[in-house]
């Protein structure tokens, strides 16, 4: 099995694993202490009621508020996220989602499915915004409520991926929401795809309307992808309609803040996909982890080693050292996110580009993610084929359950 080369993090991984064990142990001992105190308080109250005293008639047993911490979200996070991505078209195949849920036996505990993808398609019709239904963007790939029920019945955390601003369907149908060129025509990428204008509040509202529909159907988290300004194409031709004096990075953070303001009340987490180099360089697309990290619940950097240029991190070919590349990227994200609220969960490469990726290459990336003490990892393969063995749990084993005190 391959390991991350050029960086000796064995001792770091061991110490962080031991620290995580200690944190778990402290939480469980605290919970036990709370139970004992509550039991003692209840027993003391009963003794006073039944034994009698000068003021016994005035004794009132008051309900005790739970000391357990509450969460604004309706689903708990897995202790270590171990997940895969599934496209809308794959979700439309009979029985396919059930096959992904069956990976639970290999250690999977999270699945992300497309809610709106880079083609502009919304993956469902029921509950889709009027824009999507009227413009032909809404596709009957799956029933979101049925998908949420299936995932939760299998004990799987469900994330909806929503491509924010690359949207060739809505941008063409509603050019007032699109990025333009100087002559007023719609700007397009090298691949001919139109984009929504990240400055447009109406575009924000449409994207978040789609997200809200998925949240109300039962999704646990909405993850915004392409949550940035364009980079693919002749960006010198771009002219953004309307007023836009706000810097790009503040605009992206403001969009995510708006999304959170509508999704958090529904008990749903908000997260963002960012480029793997966005913590190392200013890429000129508005993705600044220091600002995003104060707004979202999780940041998912796309740390695919095949996407890094020669010389990055002083590596001749980052793709030849996948574990090392992921480790360096996550190191920079740790620095940028210090003191921020966002959980760090990397996307890892489980596909071949330029060379054949092996299970050892995938394992090397996972080892780096665990050594960096992240919240887990997600595997990406656009074809939906994954290294099942990579989903095995590697977090410290849970402590044995403690029996409730006998009162």
Can you walk through the features of this model?
- With 407 residues, this protein is an alpha/beta fold.
- 34% of the residues lie in helices and 13% in strands.
- The chain has a 9-stranded parallel beta sheet. Strands 4-6 form a two-stranded antiparallel sheet.
- α9 links the parallel β7 and β8.
- The chain is globular and about 55 Å long.
- Mean pLDDT is 86; it is low at 1-10, 31-59 and 396-402.
Taking the alpha carbons of the first and last residues, their distance comes to 51 Å
Largest sheet: 9 strands, parallel
Oligomer: single chain
Strand content: 5-15%
Radius of gyration: 24 Å
Tertiary shape: globular
Helix content: 25-40%
Strand order of the largest sheet: 9-8-7-5-3-2-1-11-10
Stretches with pLDDT under 50, minimum 5 residues: 1-10, 31-59, 396-402
* Mean residue pLDDT: 86
- Output the structural class: alpha/beta
Question: Topology as H/E string?
Answer: HEHHEHHEHEHEEHEHEHEEHE
Number of helices: 11
What is the number of beta strands? 11
């Amino acid at each position: 099995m391959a390991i991350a080369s050029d960086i000796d993090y064995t001792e770091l991984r061991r110490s962080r694993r031991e620290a995580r064990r200690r944190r778990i142990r402290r939480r469980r001992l605290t919970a036990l202490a709370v139970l004992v105190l509550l039991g003692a308080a209840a027993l003391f109250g009963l003794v006073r009621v039944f034994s009698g005293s000068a003021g016994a008639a005035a004794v009132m047993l008051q309900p005790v508020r739970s000391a357990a911490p509450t969460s604004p979200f309706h689903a708990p996070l897995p202790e270590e996220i171990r997940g895969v991505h599934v496209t809308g078209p794959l979700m439309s195949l009979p029985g396919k989602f059930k096959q992904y849920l069956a990976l639970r036996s290999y250690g999977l505990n999270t699945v992300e499915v497309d809610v709106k993808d880079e083609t502009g398609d919304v993956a469902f019709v029921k509950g889709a915004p009027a824009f999507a239904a009227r413009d032909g963007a809404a596709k009957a790939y799956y029933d979101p409520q049925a998908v949420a029920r299936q995932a939760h019945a299998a004990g799987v955390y469900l994330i909806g991926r929503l491509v924010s601003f690359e949207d060739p369907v809505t941008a063409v149908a509603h050019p007032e929401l699109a990025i333009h060129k100087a002559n007023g025509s719609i700007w397009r990428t090298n691949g001919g795809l139109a984009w929504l204008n990240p400055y447009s509040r109406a575009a924000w509202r449409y994207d978040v309307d789609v997200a809200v529909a998925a949240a109300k159907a039962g999704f646990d988290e909405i993850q915004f992808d392409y949550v940035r300004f364009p980079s693919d194409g002749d960006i010198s031709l771009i002219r953004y309609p309307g007023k836009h004096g706000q810097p790009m990075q503040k605009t992206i953070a403001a969009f995510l803040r708006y999304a959170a303001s509508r999704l958090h009340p529904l008990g749903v987490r908000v997260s963002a996909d960012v480029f793997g180099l966005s913590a190392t360089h200013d890429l000129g697309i508005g993705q600044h982890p220091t600002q995003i990290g104060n707004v979202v619940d999780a940041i998912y950097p796309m740390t695919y080693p095949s996407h890094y240029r020669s010389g990055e991190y002083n590596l001749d070919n980052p793709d030849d050292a996948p574990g090392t590349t992921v480790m360096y990227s996550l190191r920079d994200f740790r620095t940028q996110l210090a003191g921020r609220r966002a959980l760090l969960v990397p996307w890892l490469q489980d596909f071949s580009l330029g060379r054949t990726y092996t299970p050892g290459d995938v394992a090397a990336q996972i080892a780096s993610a665990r050594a960096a003490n992240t919240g887990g990892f997600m595997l990406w393969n656009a074809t939906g084929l994954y290294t099942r063995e990579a989903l095995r749990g590697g977090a410290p084993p849970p402590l044995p359950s403690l029996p409730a005190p006998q009162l």
